[in-house]
Design brief:
The protein has helices spanning 32-58, 63-85, 90-95, 97-121, 124-131, 134-146, 152-168, 179-201, 208-228, 251-276, 278-284, 287-300, 306-330, and strands at 2-4, 7-9, 240-243, 246-249. The protein is mainly α. It has one domain (45-326). A two-stranded antiparallel sheet has the order 1-2.
């Protein structure tokens, strides 16, 4: 408040919105087509972990050791690039430190640990289905937390995607059900939700490399702590492991699941979330199941059935429906994609 010519004037301070956000704290959708391509590439990269990771498990390697090696090696690979990307941006990292820690504990380490624990009690199909309830949970979160009721097209996309997953995973073909396993599977789904929401919540001036690298470092550290506490089985198996019809050294699949299915996949996944928003990115991530079937076919000669192909078509139809429902919100400069976290949290 200042005095000028006997009159009082009040100086109001207006807080500038964060880059890529509106004044309400919501994310503006940018590059939807490029974001869709990046999200598909990320899903394909994540999907390689199934076929190549299975070769280690068949060779006697414990899931805990496989996951820990995967995340640790990926963290080491991204450490220097992540630090380099933070030049002059350390204040932004400090502001988002809790997001990075939460992302590493839940989206990186927690999701994989919960899934592998679910697999010990359930069939792989049921465990995967439970984990990939995450997009449906995100739609529900938007509805309950922000009052953004899904439109009919989004609901139709959800229904098609869920039915498609049921067919692709062949859940009706003799899947066993365990309460403990179901709880672990739901925990994996919640962790996957947090993966998308936290990636969408971080400030845009924190580079994707920094978030991915920091999350992997936190995830790797938490896994090693769990191993030292005796929570994780760190048994190593044969030095030569089967990969389809050939036998390869153990480090071949480890490099693939660490460099492709972790380091590259997490960086591209974060970039996709920033371009599409958490809701659409999470639905596109469902294609990981389809890519996993393809890689299992190419690497392990596990051919998809006709039912799986029909399920894949339904998943694609569901993704198209959700993406089409987003189109009206991105057709004009004034339209925004609703952020999937509390607007007042920034």
């Amino acid at each position: 408040m200042t005095a000028q010519g006997g009159e009082l004037t009040v100086a109001a301070t207006v807080q500038e919105p964060a880059p890529g956000r509106t004044s309400a704290g919501v994310r503006v959708v940018s590059h939807p087509l490029l974001g869709l391509v990046v999200a598909l590439v990320s899903a394909a990269a994540f999907a390689t972990s199934g076929a190549f990771g299975k070769s280690l498990l068949v060779g006697g390697w414990s899931p805990g050791l496989v996951v820990t090696l995967r995340i640790t090696l990926a963290a080491l690979v991204l450490l220097v690039p992540a630090l380099w990307s933070l030049r002059g941006r350390w204040p932004a990292l400090r502001r988002n430190a809790w997001v990075v820690v939460g992302y590493g504990l839940t989206g990186v380490a927690g999701c994989q640990l919960a899934y592998f624990n679910a697999v010990t009690h359930l069939s792989v199909g049921v465990a995967l289905l439970l984990e990939y309830l995450a997009p449906v949970l995100i739609v529900g979160w938007l509805w309950v937390r922000h009052g953004h009721a899904p439109r009919r097209l989004t609901l139709a996309g959800v229904a098609l995607a869920v039915v498609g997953l049921l067919l692709v995973l062949d859940v009706v073909g003799g899947a066993s059900v365990s309460l403990v396993g179901v709880l672990w599977g739901l925990a994996a789904a919640v962790c996957l939700v947090l993966y998308f929401l936290l990636a969408d919540h971080v400030d845009d001036d924190v580079p994707p490399l920094a978030l991915a690298g920091g999350g992997l470092v936190v995830g790797a550290a938490s896994l090693w702590v769990a191993a030292l506490m005796g929570v994780l089985d760190m048994t190593h198996g044969d030095p030569q492991v089967p990969l389809g019809e050939v036998v390869v050294p153990w480090w071949v699949p480890v490099l693939v699941i660490a460099l492709v299915a972790a380091a590259f996949a997490y960086v591209t996944g974060i970039a996709a979330v920033r371009m599409l928003g958490a809701k659409v990115a999470s639905f596109v991530a469902l294609t990981e199941v389809l890519f996993a079937v393809v890689f299992a076919w190419l690497v392990l000669a596990e051919l998809p059935t006709a039912v799986q192909l029909v399920g894949g078509a339904l998943i694609v139809a569901g993704l198209v429906a959700v993406r089409a429902d987003e189109a009206p919100a991105t057709s004009t400069p004034s339209s925004v994609h609703v952020d999937d976290v509390s607007e007042g949290a920034r």
